[in-house]
Amino acid sequence: EGNNVLDELNMIFSSVACFNGSFLDHQNDEHFKTGPWSSGVDLIAARLFFDKMAKTEYSKLLQQATVTLENRLIAQLPTSPPDFEAMRAFLILPVFPLFQDPKNYLTLTLPFAAAVLRLDANPSKVLDNWWSEVDIGYFCRLVEIYKNAVVFLLTRMKTLQLAPLLSHYVIYALRVLEKLYKVNMNANRVAYDVFYVHELNNLVNIETDYLYWASQQAGVKIQPAIAEIPVAFCTYPFVLNARAKTKMLQTDAALQMQIAVNRTGVENIFMLLTLGPFLTSSPFLVLHVQRDNLVSDALRELSIHSDVDLKKPLKVVFLGEEAVDDGGVTKEFFLLLLKELLDPKYGMFTQYEQSRLIWFSEKTFVEQNWFHLIGILCGLAIYNFTVVDLHFPLVLYKKLLNVKPSLDDLKELSPTEGRSLQQLLDHPDNDVEDAFCLTFAIFRENYGIIELQELVPGGNKVAVKKENRKEYVEAYVDFIFNNSIRELFLAFSSGFLKVSGGKVLHLFQPSELMAMVVGNTNFNWKELEMSAIYKGEYHAAHPTIKLFWEVLHQLPLEKKKLFLLFLTGSDRIPIYGMASIRMMIQPTSGGEQYLPVAHTCYNLLDLPKYQNKETLRTKLIQAIDHHEGFSLV
């Protein structure tokens, strides 16, 4: 009987036709609802069957099935299946449990990837459709399989000297991930960061890989980051996390600076990056400004520098002061200048009370070059590891990357407006015109004056009905984010792109770009403690320091964020994490009656030598609760 089972199993697992006829969804019609969007496969039944096979008592069956799949079935997978039913194996096979076992990557998982990539255009599109309809667990598992395969292959290539044999498999895995990523872009199954392969930061020289990618874009041949793999991982930016992309952007800046210094061209990239510091006479962008004339001086100084100069490390000199800029002066420059530019008296931006976010004012009293300056500052922040406290919504970064704004963006900026428009779209009855009484024109208030703005030509006479309500919402969103602030945004974006433009920018997701400018909220308070630097008699084991960290770790998240704002001038953290803050703590000569004091520009905390935990907690909370922001002690 056992042999009969093995024979039957061998027959099913060695024939594509038999395999395709297994695990059918019998709840549907005689064709099992098979079509371009439905596979007719019962994936739950397939998973239960394979899970049962994975049990110890069926190990012989599992081993036989694996061998048969490797030697027979995978090789038979067609490139041009005659019908939808002939494609079911492409959906069933990844459910097989040993698909996820690294021992089978080279014999099962990656040969299957090659078969997927060999599919002709039409069946390949059908597989995309099926993938977009599977449950989230299946989709995520498939992504993880090929992410893990990339890591497995790169690790083996480094340790076992098998690069020539494995290089094509790396490309197969990346291309399958690319196919899945494109499916996800259309179907929105999972967050984009699910595709990150974080291990690439250690397995691949990101700087060299970017240079290889840039040389390909320029039509120049140089050595890839991993010599045996003729591929730039930058070609697959969705697998690179924000830290890797930050390195890419900084490498791009260094590349452009050195090209400007030595015009020998892209062919000498490596030589330029090595010799650049000796070839250039001014490796820094130095700005000379006065505190009492900061905006005008900054506009003047930035206007005299070339686009490439703006990508150099920034050094700021406050005229009449002797302080050497080792980072603190630059940070102070950003904080002071942004505080001035965001002053409500200029009316450059409108703050939305519900979201506490800002957006471009539709009417303003300042010249457009002020917006250009803020754009440059955001670009400079990227290259100078400075988090700027600009509370723009995500849509700003979408627009910089030419991603169309949506109703979700309006919901983030102005929740009430967004919900109202969603209610309009969701209204179930046909009486939209009578129920909402809207036309393609809206009233907007600017400085106490209410004006009627038409969303389309003659919009005041066009009623919103059930048939055109979607167009109304799109026009409304377009007005808020595009038409009403077009010239101001163009000034801002031209400033930003002057510093951070180029092809490299479009390797980013909007939220990744946002994190580079304003930081993120991936708090790791232990990391802050481990990276702290102590001055004077303070050290990690000092009683006051131990009390301080006990108190900080016990504070609720909102208080911790207030402390971060108190210390650094922002409640967000740099893209490289909390360790990059490099917090410094020094003792003071004052007694316990004094509050802690933060030197925001240096991330420096003056901490009195408190003797007990309760006093320290009380004084610290008093200090952070009375902090007003932009404190430049």
Automatic annotation (TrEMBL):
Molecular-function GO term, any one: ubiquitin protein ligase activity
| PROSITE patterns on file | HECT
Please report the name of this protein according to its UniProt entry.
HECT-type E3 ubiquitin transferase
List the SMART domains. HECTc (SM00119)
Task: Give the organism, scientific name.
Answer: Callorhinchus milii (Ghost shark)
- GO cellular component terms attached to this protein's record: cytoplasm
Q: What is its EC number?
A: 2.3.2.26
Tell me which Pfam families the record gives.
HECT
- Name the active site residues: 601
Chief place of localization: cytoplasm
Q: InterPro entries, per this entry?
A: E3A/B/C-like, HECT_dom, Hect_E3_ubiquitin_ligase
What subcellular compartments does it reside in?
Cytoplasm
Q: Which domain of life is it from?
A: Eukaryota
Tell me which Gene Ontology terms the entry assigns under biological process: protein polyubiquitination
Ranked from the top, the taxonomy reads:
Eukaryota, Metazoa, Chordata, Craniata, Vertebrata
Q: Spell out the reaction equation it catalyses.
A: S-ubiquitinyl-[E2 ubiquitin-conjugating enzyme]-L-cysteine + [acceptor protein]-L-lysine = [E2 ubiquitin-conjugating enzyme]-L-cysteine + N(6)-ubiquitinyl-[acceptor protein]-L-lysine
Q: What are the protein's UniProt keywords?
A: Cytoplasm, Transferase, Ubl conjugation pathway
